[in-house]
Structure formats: C-alpha cells, structure tokens
Design goal:
Helix content is 74%, strand content 0%. By secondary structure, the protein is an all-alpha fold. Helix 3 runs antiparallel to helix 4. The radius of gyration is 20 Å and the shape is elongated.
C-alpha cells in the first residue's frame, strides 16, 4: 500500500516552482533597477525631452546591452507568468499547447523587434 501523506508523500509534477519563483524575483529586480537608471538619465538630462534626447540615452553601447538584457529578462518573466496561467486555467491539452507555442513565438518575435530597434539607432 502506497502512503501519500506526511513525510512519505509522493510528490509529482514539473518541480520548477522554486526556480520560477526565484527567476520572477530576479527579473523583476533587474527591471526595477533598469527603470531607476533610465529615470535618472531622463531626470538629469538638460533641455526638452524629444527624440534626440531618447536616441542619445540609448546610443551608448552599454545602454543598448543593458536594455536588451532587460528585454530578455522581461520576456523570461512574462513567459513564466503566462505559462503558469495556461497550465492552471486551460485544461484541454491541445489548446494549452497551441497557446504555449503562440506565446513563445510572440515573445521571440518581440525580442527580435526590440533587437532591431536598439541597433538601428
């Protein structure tokens, strides 16, 4: 007879809850720090804030890499959140798989678009 309670409980599932929880916190922290850096650059810029100012902020190579790193963190953060929503609330396996694929394709497309925008400035 199999015991499925107490210290003898049989745990099943994907086993990535702690890792995903930690990734959510780390990526959120990175995005918050990026927001502070960006706000500091905007606040301490002189003159009116127009296209030239924004292009100047993102013209430095370090800012492009930092921004793209944050875009990737945002996509990872979004993937975990949306994937969990699909797993928790969409029961038909085929529909859930289609939504996972759509979400991944959409996130990769957005990352490609962000890359092209950043390196065309």
């Amino acid at each position: 007879m199999s015991v499925n309670y107490g210290s003898k409980r049989v745990v099943t599932g994907a086993h990535y809850g702690l890792r995903d929880w930690l990734v959510q916190r780390v990526t959120a922290t990175l995005m918050a720090l990026f927001t502070v850096v960006l706000l500091a650059q905007v606040i301490f810029s002189s003159g009116p804030i127009g296209y030239e100012t924004w292009a100047g902020i993102f013209a430095a190579q370090w800012m492009k890499f930092l921004t793209f790193g944050v875009v990737l963190a945002l996509h990872w953060h979004a993937w975990i959140g949306v994937r969990d929503i699909w797993m928790d609330y969409v029961k038909p396996v085929g529909l859930r798989l289609a939504l996972h694929v759509f979400t991944l394709v959409w996130l990769v497309g957005c990352a490609g678009w962000a890359y092209s925008v950043l390196w065309k400035l």
